[in-house]
Amino acid sequence: MAVPKTARAKVAYVVNEFSRTFLKDPEFMRKTVKPVVLAGLKLLFGRRGIKVNIGGQGEVRMSPIFYFSNWENFGGQHNKGYASCVQACDGKQIFLDIGAHIGLYSLPISKRLSKDGRIFAFEPSSVNYKTLQDHIHMNQADSIIPLPHLVGAISLDQVDFYEDTDQISPMNSIACTSKTPIKVTRKKQISVDEFCQDMKIIPDVIKIDVEGAEIEVLKGAKKTLREHDPKIFLSVHPVHIKALGKTLDDLASIIEEIGYIPQTVEGKDNSDFHENECLLTKKR
């Protein structure tokens, strides 16, 4: 079932369909009309942004470029663990947002942590990272510390990263697939274990959405996960995992090794990863 769109998103959908059906040019609106409309919205709303209740988990301010987006219904299909992840952070101290994108998780969670709680938001994409920074400033969310790094098995100074350097994209990855942006950049990579040790922190909740690097992130977090048992919300990307020469069996093995079990967001068995959104919980 399709998720109902907001009024603004419906307007954008109708306009795009008109462009595709009647003008026979699906790119016309995006290339000609959209830039003009967005420029007007930026003038109207300025740096204060627009108010958006992302996935019904709390109102935050976002860039006017998302005026016609459907973020109010985020988590309805893909990212179905969104609400559970946000709510799991109520009163917690430390949240690691690995693959933070533009702050869709970090922004509402920043309002739910304990008074002195902190969020470490890792986002290697240059365009996404700039938008994440803008959103942090708009919301005066000083508890969010953005970091422009990859997260992997070990810390490295230079790692190949495929990204779209022209626009915001959720497809940026260390894996190269048919849908991956072709621009190759070089990024610093850190591991969860080294980062937590250096920062002297103990994460309560970790979100991992890294387009295929799931196995490497977990490998680099073994010590932290074994010693502190944080709750983990994991997005699984089978195509990207395969592109990196790994399999879902490899993912299952590392999860077993660190002493966790994969479940659906509802708490049912997900050992075959039939649902891509996983809740990893410690074996009892």
Q: How confident is the prediction overall: mean pLDDT?
A: 89
Q: Which residues sit in consecutive blocks of at least 5 with pLDDT less than 50?
A: none
Count of DSSP E strands?
12
CATH class of the largest domain, anyone? Answer: Alpha Beta
Mass-distribution shape: globular
Structure write-up:
With 284 residues, the chain is of the alpha/beta class. The protein folds into 2 domains: 6-74, no CATH class; 79-282, 3-Layer(aba) Sandwich (Rossmann fold). The chain has 10 helices and 12 strands. The strands form 3 sheets. Strands 5-4-3-9-10-12-11 form a 7-stranded mixed sheet, with helices on both faces. The longest helix has 18 residues, at 28-45. It starts with 6 loop residues before the first helix and ends with a strand. The model has no long low-confidence stretch (mean pLDDT 89).
Any chance you could write out the topology, listing elements then pairs?
Blueprint: H1 7-21, H2 28-45, E1 50-53, E2 59-62, H3 82-88, E3 94-98, H4 106-109, E4 118-122, H5 126-138, E5 144-147, E6 150-151, E7 156-163, E8 183-190, H6 192-199, E9 205-208, H7 214-219, H8 222-228, E10 231-235, H9 238-243, H10 248-257, E11 260-263, E12 277-282
Parallel strand pairs: 3-4, 3-9, 4-5, 6-8, 9-10
Antiparallel strand pairs: 1-2, 7-8, 10-12, 11-12
InterPro entries: FkbM_mtfrase, SAM-dependent_MTase, SAM-dependent_MTases_sf
Organism: SAR324 cluster bacterium
Pfam families: Methyltransf_21
